[in-house]
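wait is this the right file?? whatever heres the structure
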């Protein structure tokens, strides 16, 4: 979970721009230099399934566009006038007040020692992210932009802007929390332009990779494919109902995780699963791996340690309830919402 309180920095404009329409078309996104008034338009194509964009998935950023093992090539790209450096301050990215633009910083605004990572090449332009958390009051271009946690505004953003902001946030947060080797406790240092850290103890040399927690999320249908399980976890915000999810245990396949979690949480026996999509969820360092699943059984045994409630819902019932005062769907940028809406738009498929 997010420990900051980014809400403090939000203007009403960001909250008012929430668009509940599931078919809302992503808007054009720009990344702009703070001193560059001739902004460069920038459109990312999102991963699409069932004709819907899935937030935080995006194409068009070539992560291996430069040789990460060649520090001179990375340094030359960083010092080139085209380089875009996205500042990340205490998990927040610099965004225009209307939420349409991610801003970059000129190199000379960085302090010596601010961690820097290479994100990738976009149409030949190198993109970097800098952790400027050590700055006390970083410049924001006056009233036109502010540092905002992408978690707070993700539902309003187009997939590319949300994705690159979340990617930078995840990678830099991992660097900050991985400064010592878990094997020998010596300091580590960034390698491969930010995709790895390596232990500085020559007798150890352990290589550390960004922590990513795989989690399954599953839309469980009855044998007819007519109804699905919606549940309320004790930790959910009031009235939110969602599908089941759980972290992958060591030694488990994804299919086994789905079956185990469903059995643990609602007592159903899974007969079939089908992979649907995946989504990086930077806010808990997770990779969400989504499945459509079919239960062989229908009697729900709700595990009240984990869940407040769980029930079967038909497509019509979800449609009738949705966004009522007592039944709301998960946030619009979540893969849970994507799975629910995809299922509602599809014809029933039996086990
Ligand atoms: Zn070590």
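ok assuming it is, sequence goes like this
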């Amino acid at each position: 979970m997010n420990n900051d309180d980014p809400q403090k920095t939000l203007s009403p404009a960001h909250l008012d721009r929430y668009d509940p329409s599931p078919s809302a078309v992503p808007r054009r996104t720009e990344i702009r230099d703070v001193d560059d008034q001739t902004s460069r338009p920038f459109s990312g194509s999102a991963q699409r399934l069932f004709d819907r964009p899935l937030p935080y998935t995006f194409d068009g950023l070539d992560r291996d566009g430069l040789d990460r093992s060649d520090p001179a090539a990375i340094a030359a790209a960083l010092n080139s006038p085209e380089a875009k450096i996205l500042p990340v301050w205490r998990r927040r990215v610099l965004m225009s007040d209307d939420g349409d633009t991610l801003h970059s910083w000129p190199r000379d605004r960085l302090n010596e020692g601010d961690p820097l990572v290479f994100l990738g090449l976009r149409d030949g332009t190198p993109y970097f992210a800098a952790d400027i958390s050590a700055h006390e009051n970083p410049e924001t271009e006056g009233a036109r932009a502010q540092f905002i946690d992408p978690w707070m505004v993700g539902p309003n953003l187009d997939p590319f802007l949300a994705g690159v902001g979340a990617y930078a946030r995840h990678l830099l947060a991992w660097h900050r929390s991985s400064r010592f080797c878990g094997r020998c406790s010596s300091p580590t240092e960034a390698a491969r332009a930010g995709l790895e850290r390596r232990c500085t103890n020559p007798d150890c040399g352990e290589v550390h990779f960004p922590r990513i927690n795989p989690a399954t999320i599953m839309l469980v249908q009855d044998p007819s494919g007519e109804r699905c399980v919606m549940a309320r976890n004790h930790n959910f915000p009031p009235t939110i109902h969602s599908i089941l999810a759980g972290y992958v245990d060591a030694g488990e396949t994804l299919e086994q995780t789905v079956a185990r979690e469903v059995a643990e949480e609602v007592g159903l026996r899974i007969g079939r699963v089908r992979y649907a999509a995946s989504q990086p969820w930077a806010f808990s360092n997770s990779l969400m791996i989504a499945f459509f699943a079919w239960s062989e059984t229908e009697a729900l045994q709700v595990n009240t340690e984990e869940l407040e409630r769980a029930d079967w819902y038909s497509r019509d019932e979800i449609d009738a309830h949705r966004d009522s005062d007592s039944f709301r769907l998960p946030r619009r940028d979540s893969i849970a919402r994507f799975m629910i809406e995809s299922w509602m738009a599809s014809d029933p498929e039996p086990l």
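The two ends are 36 Å apart (CA to CA). so i think its the right one actually
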